[in-house]
Amino acid sequence: MSDFNLAIPVILKHEVDPKRGPYVDNPADRGGPTNWGITLATLQELRPGATIADLKAMTQIQAEGIYRERYWQPPNLAAVSSQVVATKLLDMGVNMGLGEMAKLAQRSVRRLGDGVPVDGDFGPITLAAVNRCDPDSLIYALVSAQRAFYQALVAARPADAAFLEDWLTRAEWGLAEVEALT
Questions:
Q1: Domain residues of the chain, as ranges?
Q2: Considering the chain, what percentage of its residues have pLDDT values greater than 70?
Q3: I need a surface site. Which of 33, 93, 108, 148 has the fewest CB within 10 A?
Q4: Taking residues 119-142, what's their average pLDDT?
Q5: Is the separation of the CB atoms in 63 and 37 below 8 Å?
Q6: What would the mean pLDDT of 99-115 be, rounded to a whole number?
């Protein structure tokens, strides 16, 4: 079993700008303004009628609740047997959405020899396949898939090139953690 409380510091590290703090409104970011990495659209889905003022006022505790409710519980990441893999999957889900995270996880599992379908649903079949994989090998496959995903985004929309370095740095998370364990 994996622990959300061990995963959340990684997410916050990736989502909070060390110079500007948790609220960011970069006009080049198609996601719009974020606070603690939560977009206004996400907040409005969970709390209809939420405003920019509500987004700006969101606390870390509230953001963590959203991460748990929206990105940890639905795919049942607590049932992932490796904490590093669960944290990586949570981080991917937060950054690219649960459907893309599921597809990259499924492709990574397939790359490692499991015939799980690539359908974008991180359900019991994908969860079981993830848990059958060697966690270290899966982290390497996930990092590779995540890198390729970001590079494809930039190829399709060159304006996103400004984000590529940060995205690739984010994709690398998990490699050092695996190497520290070996």
A1: 4-181
A2: 99
A3: 148
A4: 97
A5: yes
A6: 96
155 SS3 class: helix
Measured between alpha carbons, how far is 100 from 161 in angstroms, rounded to an integer?
Answer: 19
pLDDT in tens, 70-99: 999 999 999 999 999 999 999 999 999 999
| Rounded CA separation 38/24 (Å) | 10
Helical ranges in the chain per DSSP H: 4-15, 40-46, 52-57, 60-66, 83-96, 98-111, 124-132, 135-156, 161-171, 175-181
The span from the CA of 113 to the CA of 142, in Å, is 14
- Give the per-residue pLDDT at 177: 81
Does residue 182 register a pLDDT over 80?
no
Residue with tokens 């790359």: 111
The whole-angstrom separation of Cα 32 and Cα 118 is 29
Q: What is the C-alpha end-to-end distance of the chain, expressed in Å?
A: 20
- CATH class, 4-181 region: mainly alpha
Q: Is 37 left (phi over 0), alpha (psi -120 to 50) or beta?
A: left
The three state secondary structure string of 116-133 is CCCCCCCCHHHHHHHHHC
- Identify the CA nearest to 142 among candidates 117, 164, 175, 166: 175
